[in-house]
Amino acid sequence: MKLAQIALSDIAADILPRDRTLTDAAALDDLIRSITAIGLRQPIEVFGLVQDEGQPQPYGLISGYRRLMAFRAMGQTTIPAICCNPADIPQALAAMVTENEVRAQISPWEKGRLILRLLEEGTFPDAACAIDTLYPGATRQQRARLRGFCRVVDILMDTPLRTPEALSTARMDRLATALRMDGGPAIIATLIAHAGPSHSLPQQWEALRPILNTILTEPEKGSKPHRPRHALTLRQGMTLTRVRAPNGWIIRLTGPMARSPGLVDDVFDLVERWLQPEE
Question: What are phi and psi of 67, to 5 degrees?
Answer without folding.
Answer: -65, -40
